[in-house]
Amino acid sequence: MKLSLNTLPQGRSEQIFDSVAQLQHDESIKWKPLRLELKLSIDRHNQNFYLRGNIICTGLFICETGMEEFEDILKGDFEIILTYNSKHLNDNESDEIILLPGHETEFDLYPLVHDTVLLGIPISHVCGPDCEAGKALQENIQAKQEPDERWAKLKDMFNE
Ligand SMILES: [Zn+2]
To answer: Domain range holding 84?
Structure first.
């Protein structure tokens, strides 16, 4: 997921990255990424590149309530400034600025995409407010907790 910097036009441009392969091959990801769309808005001013990324990622997850698989869409965005000029590093401290080595003509977007996608995962990740699989699971557990009939009969025998 590399952005070629030297071929970018001055001013605004936009690029779409939609290969999900790198996320799918990432062994640190424990769910199944299915689709990815990164819409990257670029604003180039000579040696500076203002990037704004908008990410939509669809994946298969395990519902925390019912333990079943469900599809969900993660959304997120990032903003970053790339520069070849180190004097810009002090100018704007609130923004995230990355200093590019002078010989670098490409910027790897993958770490940003990876972090943004992972930040999009809710802390409690469930299929929805009413999880059918969760209800079934709950009923199953309750059923198992009911005393076995045979034990009940034995108990009655001792009580007599
Ligand atoms: Zn569920």
So the answer is: 2-130
Q: In angstroms, what is the span from residue 140 Cα to ligand 1's centroid?
A: 15
Q: Read off the pLDDT of residues 33-61 as tens digits, 9 standing for 90 and up.
A: 999 999 999 999 999 999 999 999 999 99
Residue 156 has what pLDDT?
A: 74
User: Is 10 among the domain residues?
Assistant: yes
Q: How far is the CA of 61 from the centre of ligand 1 (A)?
A: 10
Q: Is there a contact between 64 and 75 (Cβ–Cβ < 8 Å)?
A: no
How many domains, in total, are found in the chain?
A: 1
Å from CA of 72 to ligand 1 middle = 11
* Centre of ligand 1 from the C-alpha of residue 48, in Å: 46
Residue given tokens 């000029």 in the structure block: 85
Contacts of 137 (CB under 8 A, 6+ apart): 65, 66, 67
Task: For residue 129, report the distance from its CA to the centre of ligand 1, in Å.
Answer: 8
In a domain, 60, yes or no: yes
Which tokens sit at 103?
Answer: 């010989």
The answer to whether position 154 is within a domain reads: no
Q: Give domain status of residue 74, yes or no.
A: yes
C-alpha 25 – ligand 1 centre gap (Å): 26
